[in-house]
Amino acid sequence: MKEIHNFTITARRQHGAQYFSLVLQHAGSMQPIAPGQFVEVLVEGSREVMLRRPISVHDVDEKAGTMTLLIQIVGNGTRQLSTLQPGDRLNVVYPLGHGFTVDASGNHPLLVGGGAGIAPLLHLSKVLASKGIKPTVLLGGRTVGLIPVCDEFRPYADVLVATDDGSAGHHGVVTTHPAFSQSYSMIYTCGPTPMMKAVARSAAQRSLPCEVSLENMMACGVGACLCCVTDTDQGHRCVCKDGPVFDITTMHKWYEN
Ligand SMILES: Cc1cc2nc3c(=O)[nH]c(=O)nc-3n(C[C@H](O)[C@H](O)[C@H](O)COP(=O)(O)OP(=O)(O)OC[C@H]3O[C@@H](n4cnc5c(N)ncnc54)[C@H](O)[C@@H]3O)c2cc1C
Ligand code: FES
């Protein structure tokens, strides 16, 4: 069930110049949050930012009643959010959208993340690990400083890195990493659209099941304003309500363009 709640920030960490994470504590009992679901956060104290901002849930600790968000500073809203400190409150609508199909992972899934798209993959890795499945996680970025929180994945996954400038791991984009061309029981991906389309095209060519998590611009976050619509093989779909995670078998139109 969706809820609007004032969370209290209990921790803030900076990850390089562009990324920070916030741990949010619920005052009562938190709603269950599936990997790949997102929240809409209110940016208080900003004259320019009217609309809530969609952010994936990076981590969940059900016992502690906390969730963690990993945020990249790209504009006014995320810059304002970066000023929040422990003790401050954050008004959040959650949980939103449909997450990854965890039950379809099989025993050898690959998770491919780029940029802020890395965020939802930690929660997914931990849920898979809790089912006895150790995924391979392939994280990409222009340079090593733009691949945050790699170490957080290591207890739950085999972690591989690809950088465009060769500053860490494989020199090149994620789809040229030798491990990418191996066979997997499932591929889950979130990140920049060109990266996800390349991952989806490759998965389709190899007949591998694959889910993509789209990050279209959003406003309402609940399917009312239609500003996040994407073209699928089944017609137009709201990324916020029908996604953000889509099975690529319904997305030929999207990844072939
Ligand atoms: C379902 C979903 C989950 C997301 N999860 C995360 C997350 O976990 N961590 C994170 O850092 N970001 C995430 N994003 C992206 C995040 O919502 C945007 O970066 C944020 O709304 C930008 O707000 P702003 O006011 O700082 O920037 P704005 O001033 O609104 O925009 C600044 C620049 O960022 C671009 N931009 C804005 N929104 C997006 C977007 N959705 N995708 C790509 N470019 C955008 C704009 O075109 C502009 O160039 C997610 C987006 C969606 C739809
Ligand atoms: S953001 Fe309003 S319909 Fe998706």
Small molecules bound: flavin-adenine dinucleotide, FE2/S2 (inorganic) cluster
Which series of helices and strands comes N to C?
A: EEEEEEHEEHEHEEEHEEEHEH
Number of helices: 6
What is the spatial order of strands in the main beta sheet? 4-3-7-1-2-6-5
Largest sheet, in brief, is: 7 strands, antiparallel
Low-pLDDT regions: none
Approximately how much beta-strand content do the residues carry? 25-35%
Look at the structure and give the mean pLDDT.
95
Distance N terminus to C terminus? 35 Å
Question: Helix amount, in percent?
Answer: 10-25%
Question: In angstroms, what is the radius of gyration?
Answer: 17 Å
What is the subunit organization of this protein? single chain
Tally of DSSP β-strands: 16
Principal-axis shape equals globular
Structural class: alpha/beta
Provide a descriptive summary of the structure in words.
The chain has about 260 residues and is an alpha/beta fold. The protein is built from 6 helices and 16 strands. It has helices at about 75-80, 120-130, 150-155, 195-205, 240, 250-255, and strands at about 5-15, 20-25, 40, 55, 60, 65-70, 90-95, 110-115, 135-140, 160-165, 170, 185-190, 210-215, 230, 235-240, 245. A 7-stranded antiparallel β-sheet has the order 4-3-7-1-2-6-5. It has a 7-stranded mixed β-sheet with strand order 11-10-9-8-12-13-16, sandwiched between helices. The protein has a two-stranded antiparallel sheet with strand order 14-15. The chain starts with a strand and ends with a helix. Bound molecules: flavin-adenine dinucleotide and FE2/S2 (inorganic) cluster (FES).
